[in-house]
Amino acid sequence: AFQVSPQLWAECTRMAAPPSVDVVVADTENHRVLLFSAGAPEGVVVAGGNKAGDGLHQLDSPCGVAVDPSDGSFVIADCTNDRIVRWAWGAKEGIVVAGGNGTGDGLHQLDSPCGVAIGRDGTIVIGA
């Protein structure tokens, strides 16, 4: 059975699992995304982990993550930054794919996105 110690992260609000038995976690309060590979004793930071911030190498309260089955990249709901970021395997920073233009109701803005999913056709679905 998969067990998680409370010391691993301050607050975890959502998790996503790729087709394998690996587990991906949006570690909200630690501003990072972790990958727990099957059988590994601890997780590996795959996005963020550079303190809270709005740089492309940072996340601020990520609260949703999905794994794109076409390329294995992580699509992250970066809540406090009002953006969706795609982070490739091994990348040092992400690419903004939606929002990132301040909080608002404009068609170029998001307001605290809290979830993300990827449709079979590759469409990114954002939960608000």
In brief, what are we looking at here?
By secondary structure, this protein is mostly beta strands. Helix content is 0%, strand content 38%. The strands form three sheets. The chain has a four-stranded antiparallel sheet, with no helix packed on it. Strands 5-6-7-8 form a four-stranded antiparallel sheet, with no helix packed on it.
Task: Tell me what you see in this structure.
The chain is mostly beta strands and 128 residues long. The protein is built from no helices and 10 strands. The strands form 3 sheets. The protein has a 4-stranded antiparallel β-sheet with strand order 1-2-3-4, with no helix packed on it. A 4-stranded antiparallel β-sheet has the order 5-6-7-8, with no helix packed on it. A two-stranded antiparallel sheet has the order 9-10. Mean pLDDT is 87; it is low at 1-9.
Helix- and strand-based class? Answer: mainly beta
Elements, N to C (H/E):
EEEEEEEEEE
Mean pLDDT: 87
Strands side by side in the biggest sheet: 1-2-3-4
Query: What general outline do the C-alpha atoms trace?
Result: globular
**What amount of the residues lies in strands?**
35-45%
> Helical residue percent?
under 10%
- Radius of gyration, CA atoms, in whole angstroms: 14 Å
Low-confidence blocks of residues: 1-9
Number of β-strand runs: 10
